[in-house]
Amino acid sequence: MIRTLYEWTISLAAHPRALWALAFIAFIEASVFPIPPDVLMIAMIVATPSKAFRIAAVATVASVLGGLLGYAIGALAYEQIGLPILESLGKVDSMEAFSERFNSFEFWPVLIAGLTPFPYKVITIMSGWTGLPLATFIITSIVARAGRFFLVAWLLHRYGAQIRDFIERRLGLMTILFVVLLAGGFYAVKFL
């Protein structure tokens, strides 16, 4: 099933309204869809490199708006469904402690999920569920998603189709290493 969704997503790159399709995929991926918008974005940029940054901008805006939907799902589903279940199980206190721990990391979970291959939808829903401040969520989502999508756009615009394999196979790992080094740097400055 995932392979079928992947192939369907790739096929949208040739559609006359591919930019709208990208917006749709980026929007729903931020809360429920399993295929990242990068797949469609890469195919579109390889086909029309002159539109690389417009494509990245559409993916960014749609992904952040979709992230707000994920945030709302987390915020609304917890109050209406999750809390009564947790109360009946006597687990409200442990879930509140988890929520406080999640939010103590401030913007880091959103930044990491937005930049790396980690499913962004998990963090959008968790952010709403734990009550991460909405402004923090929005600003960090914009920075993370724009960073990711514009990096892909720049690499493809600059190096063309030959960089595609690197992006699809290794860019996620490189981004994770960058985030780890960045977090390590902040830690070192703060505690050393």
Automatic annotation (TrEMBL):
Domain of life according to the entry: Bacteria
Family matches, as PANTHER family: ALKALINE PHOSPHATASE LIKE PROTEIN (PTHR42709), DEDA FAMILY PROTEIN (PTHR42709:SF11)
Keyword Membrane found: yes
Keywords: Membrane, Transmembrane, Transmembrane helix
Organism: Pararhodobacter oceanensis
Membrane-spanning parts: 20-43, 55-78, 171-189
Pfam family, one: VTT_dom
Span of domain VTT: 35-155
GO cellular component: plasma membrane
Coiled coil: none
Name of the protein this chain belongs to: Cytochrome B
